[in-house]
Amino acid sequence: DQQVKQNSPSLSVQEGRISILNCDYTNSMFDYFLWYKKYPAEGPTFLISISSIKDKNEDGRFTVFLNKSAKHLSLHIVPSQPGDSAVYFCAASRSTGNQFYFGTGTSLTVIP
Amino acid sequence: NAGVMQNPRHLVRRRGQEARLRCSPMKGHSHVYWYRQLPEEGLKFMVYLQKENIIDESGMPKERFSAEFPKEGPSILRIQQVVRGDSAAYFCASSPNSQGRGGYGYTFGSGTRLTVV
To answer: What span, in angstroms and rounded, lies between the C-alpha atoms of B79 and B66?
Structure first.
C-alpha cells in the first residue's frame, strides 16, 4: 500500500530553468512532509520540509508547495543547476506515528 | 562532528549466513531508525529504537530480522539465514527527537548494500 506516490520516475530540465517535482499522498492524517535528495551510493540528504499548517515553504532556490485538499505537494527548484541532478524523494509522516512514508523517487537530470 | 556512520558499506553473504549491519548515530542523537530500499523502490521503514529500547518494529519482517541499540556502542541490525530477497540497501538514520521534526528531518547514513549470493 503505497501511501506516498511520485508518478514521474524521471525528469530532464535545462540548466537555469525551473524543475518541478510532484508528489501525491493518500493518508489525510499526514501533517508533516519532507523532500530528500539522494546521490548514487550515498544516503538521502534532507532538503526542505513543510508542516500542514502552511502551504508554502521557501529555502533559497527550493520551494515546497502543499495543497492539502488535493493531497499534493511539489518541489520547485529555480534556477536549476547541474549539481541538482539526483534522485528526489518526498516523504510524509503523521504526528502520532514513528516513521516517514517515502515515495519511490524522481530522478532529476539538469542538462548544462 | 561526524554524521551517521554505517558499516560496512558493502556486505556480501551467501544464502543462509548471518548479516550484521552497524550504525552509529550522530553525536547528541538518541533516536535511531532503520529503513530498507529494495531495487526500484522507495525507502521502507523497518524499526525505530532508542537506547536499550525498541520503540516501533512494525516494519520489521516477523522472522530472521532483529535490531538493538545497546547502552554502549552502535545500533545493530541483524539478519539471520539471509535469502536472496534480503538483497537491498539498508539505511540508518538518527534524530535528536522522536519524529525528525523541527525543520530538519532525519540525518541518514550512507547505507549498507547487502548482496546475498
So the answer is: 7
Tell me the H-state helices in chain A: none
To probe the interface with A, which of B5, B30, B31, B43 has the most A CB atoms within 10 Å? B43
Most B CBs within 10 A among A1, A98, A106, A107, hence the mutation to make, goes to: A98
Share of chain A above pLDDT 90, in %: 88
**pLDDT tens across B28-83, in order?**
888 999 999 988 788 999 999 998 899 999 999 999 999 999 998 999 999 999 99
Q: What is the DSSP string of A24-39?
A: EE--TT--EEEEEEE-
What local confidence, expressed as pLDDT, does residue B103 receive?
Answer: 58
> How far, CA to CA in Å, does B31 sit from each of B9, B22, B101, B108?
21, 15, 12, 12
Which residues 6+ apart lie within 8 Å of B41 measured at CB?
A: A104
Which candidate from A42, A45, A104 shows the least CB-CB separation from B41? A104
User: Distance of CA B82 to CAs B23, B74, B114, Å?
Assistant: 19, 21, 10
- Give the model's confidence band at A99: pLDDT under 50 very low, under 70 low, under 90 confident, else very high: confident
Distance from CA of A89 to the nearest CA of B (A): 8
Highest mean pLDDT among A73-87, B50-64, B97-111: A73-87
Which residues in chain B are closer than 8 Å to A45, comparing Cβ atoms?
A: 108
Query: Rounded distance, CA A72 to CA A22, Å?
Result: 7
Closest chain B CA to residue A41: B110
